[in-house]
Amino acid sequence: MAIFRLYDCDIGVKYNGVDYAFDHVNEVTIEDPERNRLTRGANAKDNLGLAYKDGLKDPKRITVPVMNMSAAIKAVFEQAFKTQARLDFYCIARSDGSSKWGKNCVLSNNPQQLTLDETSESLAVSIEFETFELVENHKS
Amino acid sequence: MKVLPLKGYKSLGALRAFNVLMLGLKMLPTYMGEDYKEFLDRISQLPDDDQMKMIKEAALFVELGKDEIEAILSFCADKNGAPYEAANLKNLGPKEITEMVVAVCFEISKMKINFITENEKKKSETSQ
User: Fold this and answer.
1) By percentage, how much of chain B surpasses pLDDT 70?
2) Which residue of B81, B86, B91 is in closest CB contact with A76?
3) Chain A residues with CB inside 8 Å of B82's CB?
4) CA A76 – CA A71 distance, rounded (Å)
5) Minimal Cα–Cα distance from B39 to chain A, Å?
6) Which CATH class is domain A6-137?
7) What residue in B sits closest to A78 (Cα-Cα)?
8) What is the distance between the alpha carbons of residues B72 and B4, in angstroms, rounded to a whole number?
9) Separation between Cα atoms, residue A133 and residue A117, nearest integer Å
10) Cα distance between residue B54 and residue B107, in whole Å
11) What is the pTM of this model?
């Protein structure tokens, strides 16, 4: 199956040789702007059209709200944001080892708590990654 | 291996974990014949290298609970300067964990925490 189920996944970040595993993740959102597009002359003579690619200069974006992040680890990510350090994001299926990697990411936002209210969302620190190298490996 | 300052409530947890290690070590057949107090005194008088060997022996043979290991490792920092906690210690191997346990416990062993003060100890020794 080419499907990752969140309840089956280990999610985390490798930064400077250290693995930071996130125990409490509610969602992982991925935006990939790369598109195959079709065009043709306005005279509409050809139904096959001309294929071209769009969005190649824009990075893929991964957003992960991480709950219960400690201040020390948040400080590590803040430092990585300031220095535009490179990190690897991973999501690995525990059942078969299938994985999704965002390699050589930068943090596109300063990690911070975006909501302060009575809901569980206020426990999350949002981390956003940008990468050009999003890799998936499926084992089954 | 850099050990962070032994401060905060976790330092008490680390101290207890150190005592678990020492008591466990004393219970090994090699040291079972010794009195616990004498055993600790003897270790404290050993050169640093020998003390570290004893602590390493304890770390290798005595079972610690998850909370005790976390309490000790919280006084070591990873390459990025973050103290170890559940999130960043999952991929550590036994060698790295043992090295950190030894480093932190060695620092703890330098702390003089006893039920009696050094003065009281000297007085009791001179009165005997």
Assistant:
1) 87
2) B81
3) 18, 70, 72-73, 75-76
4) 9
5) 38
6) mainly beta
7) B80
8) 10
9) 35
10) 14
11) 0.80
